[in-house]
Write a structure and sequence with these properties.
Hypothetical protein af1432, globular
Length: about 350
């Protein structure tokens, strides 16, 4: 039996992948040089570093939309991440691009997400704004905490006691530029950005139906006509359209009709799910919890773990932010109860 080495795999990439792929041997490298692995390419090595990171494991106890305690079948931030990786790899494989790079970016893209999903992100931004003397409702406040930027901070600074994971430039670029109107330098990174939307639009609909907030028949008929009338059909339509349109365009794109239908579904979710009463009830609680934790630790900085203070460069608010952002839902809740809920004295 022959051993397949890193050099063999790099040669396979040359033979099998499109000329537009990001080849591991052409990576722009890492912030700190390291000896190459005998068996794995640099992108495979990055994927494995992320899989073994503490921040990755914590994703299993962080909210996607619905609190995990409400039911075992609702998505968490970890299952969302795995669904993004699956969708992104399917698209990448069909276009002859680098699956290893796509997988590494997918697995790392949400490492900086807070407890309680985007609610926690907004609450952290508001808390930072208050302590910085900025109106929490202003656009400037919203920019104070962004999960994609925190994800990069996690892999560059927070993991491994301040040493970070020392990932390649291409993986860090894909993590940073996976959201909003940002654009990754590699085609693989751009795939992850769109696969993220494909995943959450579809699984948030599925979870909302499970929660009794929606029925399939409630979705806009216009999106049914373009994308299909069930979860699987929608994903298949979106993925196939993205593959076919990207292949024809030489860049990562969807057709206008399919993109518009997906964005119509996204707008529908914001209007009918993310602001639904059962969700908003928990949003208010989580916002209050995050704000109180931030205020407490800002006033008691000595109680923030020493490793977070050590990498804050003397910025106490940075240390508090890193600490709270890394908490899981259940750890944040338990910490709140310990700090603010009276306990019976034992004698």
């Amino acid at each position: 039996m022959r051993i397949i080495t890193r050099e063999d795999q790099q040669q396979r990439e040359r033979m099998a992948l499109s000329e537009d792929a990001a080849f591991a041997e052409e990576s722009e490298g890492r912030a700190r040089s390291s000896d190459p692995d005998v068996l794995r390419t640099d992108y495979q090595r990055d994927r494995d570093k992320i899989l073994h990171a503490k921040s990755f494991r914590r994703l299993s106890h962080k909210t996607q939309v619905f609190l995990a305690s409400e039911g075992d079948h609702f998505r968490t931030r970890l299952t969302h991440t795995l669904e993004v990786a699956q969708i992104a790899r399917t698209i990448t494989r069909a276009l002859g691009l680098n699956e290893d790079l796509t997988e590494a970016i997918s697995l790392g893209h949400d490492l900086g997400h807070t407890p309680f999903g985007h609610t926690g992100e907004a609450a952290l931004s508001a808390a930072l704004a208050r302590h910085a003397g900025i109106d929490p409702e202003s656009p400037a406040a919203a920019a104070l905490y962004r999960h994609n930027e925190q994800s990069v901070r996690v892999v560059e600074r927070i993991e491994n006691g301040g040493a970070g994971l020392n990932l390649t430039f291409e993986v860090r670029d894909g993590i940073l530029n996976h959201t909003g109107n940002l654009r990754a330098e590699t085609l693989e990174g751009r795939i992850v950005g769109t696969a993220d939307r494909i995943a959450y639009v579809n699984h948030d609909i599925d979870d909302a139906i499970r929660a009794g907030i929606l029925r399939e028949a409630d979705l806009p008929s216009s999106t049914h006509a373009v994308l299909g009338t069930d979860h699987s059909a929608r994903i298949e339509t979106l993925v196939r359209d993205m593959v076919e349109t990207s292949a024809a365009a030489g860049d990562i794109r969807m057709s206008e009709a399919v993109w518009d239908a997906m964005m119509e579904l996204r707008a529908f979710l914001f209007a009918n799910v993310y602001t639904a009463e059962p969700v908003m009830t928990e949003v208010e609680k989580a916002t209050h919890l995050i704000g109180d934790l931030f205020d407490y630790y800002a006033a008691h900085i000595e109680e923030v773990p020493a490793d977070y203070r050590a990498i804050s460069d003397g910025d106490d608010l940075r240390a508090v932010t890193d600490y709270i952002a890394g908490m899981t839902d259940r750890y944040a809740t338990a910490t709140y109860q310990r700090l603010f809920i009276p306990h019976a004295l034992s004698y």
